[in-house]
Amino acid sequence: MKAVRLRFLFVILTLSASVIPLTHSGELLTNDAVVTMVKAGLGEDLIVMKIKNSPNAFDLSTDSMVKLKSQGVNENILKAMMETEGQTQGQKTQIPERKSAKPSPYGSLFLYKNGEYITMHNVPAVLEEGTKNAVKRGLHLSIHDERYLIINGISAKFRLRGNSPITPVFYTRGNPAGSLIIVKLNQQPEKNRRYVILYARPGSHSYQTSEENKVIAIATPAEEDLFKLTTKDPLPSGEYGITNMKRTWEFAIDAP
Fold first, then answer.
1. Above 90 in pLDDT, residue 101?
2. Which tens digit of pLDDT belongs to each residue from 225-235?
3. Does this model's pTM top 0.85?
4. How many C-beta atoms surround the C-beta of residue 246 within 10 A?
5. pLDDT recorded at residue 205
6. Closest Cα to residue 123, out of 193, 170, 202?
7. Distance between alpha carbon 113 and the CA centroid of its chain, in Å?
8. How far is CA 122 from the centre of its chain?
């Protein structure tokens, strides 16, 4: 019994030494802290929950990820680390806003807020064909192409807060008409993802979604090569995606 207590104390002390103090009431998780939890035998679900609800200072360079893998950190834990990299709070963290009086020359989509342009960064997303749709297409029974647009994680890091509903204003480089769509995302917590089903007629690359998930957007020319993109109606709280099928951006509107 004494040996067990000493081992438990050693694990706690080691874990404490593997985090970087943030404030008197919090801590920053590091790679070493995750490895310590894995080697201490804590369950995968518990470690993932800890990662998602803690601020962190992860190093996820290629060499570091290879090292983490060799130290016993499995892919689900690595995925949770990647999805929360750099968060300063727990889940539903709002990423730092990079505001500027002029749009950055390196960005292609900007949120316009309080007279400033906030650069939005695209997120990893995949387009998957549903199994039923593939069968229908093989039998020539489908009149449209169906794809699942999938974004990992159930909460967007880029979040808008205020009195909901909100009418966001975006600016894009180039005319977004016919190529850029805004959709409401469905959350699927059991698979740790958000998704929306998109449709296109055979041979067409212009996708749409159901009325339930469709957000009608209006594009108008602005200065230089910019176009102003607004939603026709204010948006209620929820998770949203903006995509041109090649790149995807995410944002969320939080209820006040």
1. no
2. 899 999 999 99
3. no
4. 9
5. 67
6. 193
7. 21
8. 9
